[in-house]
Amino acid sequence: MNVLLTSHGSTGDIYPMIAYGHALQRAGHEVKFATAPLYREVIERAGLEYIHLPPDWEKEIFIEFMRELNRAILPLLQLRWIYKGAVPFMGELIDAMEKHLGWADVLVSSYFFPHYGALAAKHNVPFATFAFCHNLVPTTDYPPEGTPPLHNFPMSLQRRWNRTLWNVANRLVDFTVNSVAGELFQSKGLGTCRGFLTNPAELCLVAVSRELMGNIQHESRFQFCGYLRWQSEEKPEMDAELETFYQGERVPIMTFGSVAFDDTHTIMSRFLKNWPKGKKIIIQSGWAGLSVELERPEILVVHQMSHDQLFRYASMVIHHGGAGTTASVLHAGVPNIIIPHIADQQWWGSQVVRLKTGLALSKRRWPEKLPSYVRRIEKNAAMNERAKEVAQTLKHEDGGAISVHILEEFVRSRADMPSRTSRHGV
Fold first, then answer.
1. Which of 68, 198, 232, 275 gets the most CB atoms within 10 Å of its CB?
2. Which pLDDT does position 394 carry in this prediction?
3. Positive or negative, the Cα torsion across 78, 83, 164, 206?
């Protein structure tokens, strides 16, 4: 089977798809990954064939884009900004993808770009999407994130309410995307966006633990397959530095991944003012460029490295709540302190609280409140034990193998159909 993968955005959008490509290769399938050149090196190092797509941005431009995205308060405004930023090169991007669809037996895209479904339908190619968080899965069990639930009402009424809100949210999202990119989609013969939330593809893989997160009512098109994790190469020289620093006693680790925000200098100054003197912490600089300008020997700053390698030294991880980072912390078996900034991060904060593996802290005053949250976790033996239990559960899941099997069955079922029914519009 020839599988064409594509995704766009930050490392949290790319690394799970690399893991999926790797799993597909292990199962004997041919894989090509189409995305921006920023990720070419890591894709080829993983043994996947790379296909060039715009934009040809340097990392600094991606970081500035993330910084601007962080300024948008509401999820709809963030989605609008994503599409607005992509419109200048989206026509070229669609043309480039179309050139490679003749090779593919199936096209798999990350969830935020369902217009590829219409493009695949033009070429009679099956299309599937990947979601890295289940807050995008329509369900009658809860309403869309950011909308009011009907707690303490009869369950039948709650389900009708939730279904209504998902339909309303779907219309708002469709309108938002079409207001920015609808004209371009139509000029490429793809129609307009319809069903962004409720009908993104015939198959929607959800790269989240089935056992921990998958017990919700949803359409059969949404399939929980388990986490897909890809790590950068470990750096043996870093172990010596980290072991010298932590001296056998695990310490808090802070990382904001590919999140970037304004006033980094001011925020870190507030953090330094409030972080207890003499208390060790490791800070990963990340895309935000976190740094320490004062002489604080109890604070170690590290740069890009494998989460699995870094989190082996963690007593807890303070992070933004990105899907990939949250998965890494859950696998590491240590508690979370999530400081959400954008997109699905608020949701992941609520999920680690539900799982009793961590706390969620507002970004507004996190430098002042962080020390007290760290002390709460240090005193909470039950939370530390629960984090270890979750890690043991995840240890027995194989998201790669499960997701490959689901896709194989999907393509096989499509091939057995007398004729394929094309989707109309995005």
1. 275
2. 96
3. negative
**At the fourth CATH level, which superfamily is domain 2-227+398-416?**
Glycogen Phosphorylase B; (3.40.50.2000)
Q: Any residues with CB less than 8 A from the CB of 348 and at least 6 apart, and which?
A: 133, 321, 322, 323, 326, 338, 340
d(CA 281, CA 360) in angstroms, rounded, equals: 19
- CB of 325 closer than 8 Å to CB of 12: yes
Domain 236-395 matching CATH 1.50.10.100: the answer reads no
Dmax over CA atoms of the chain, in Å, equals: 70
pLDDT score at 423: 38
264 exposure class (CB count in 10 Å sphere: 0-12, 13-18, 19+) = middle
Question: What is the pLDDT at residue 415?
Answer: 86
| pLDDT tens-digit readout, 171-181 | 999 999 999 99
- Residues 195 and 199: their CA atoms lie apart, in Å, by 4
The answer to whether the 2-227+398-416 and 236-395 domains have the same CATH topology is yes
Phi, psi values for residue 381, rounded to 5°: -65, -35
Distance CA 400, CA 423 (A): 28
Record the pTM: 0.93
Alpha-carbon gap, residue 306 to 318, rounded angstroms: 16
From CA 67, how far away is CA 8, in angstroms rounded?
A: 16
From residue 19, alpha-carbon distances to 116, 175, 319, 405, 415 in Å are 21, 33, 22, 15, 26
Residue 183 is predicted with a pLDDT of 96
Q: Is 131 helix (H, G, I), strand (E, B) or coil?
A: strand
| Every domain of the chain and the residues it spans | 2-227+398-416, 236-395
Q: Which two tokens stand for residue 367?
A: 């430098």
Query: Which amino acid would we find at residue 84?
Result: K
- Please list, in sequence order, all residues whose beta carbon lies within 8 angstroms of the beta carbon of residue 24, skipping any fewer than 6 positions away: 1, 3, 31, 404, 407
Would you mind telling me the total number of residues written for the chain in this entry? 426
How high is the pLDDT of residue 418? 60
- Separation CA 161–CA 158 (nearest Å): 5
The tokens describing 288, both together, are 């935000």
* Regions in the chain scoring below 70 on pLDDT: 418-426
Residue 227 contacts residue 394 (beta carbons within 8 Å): yes
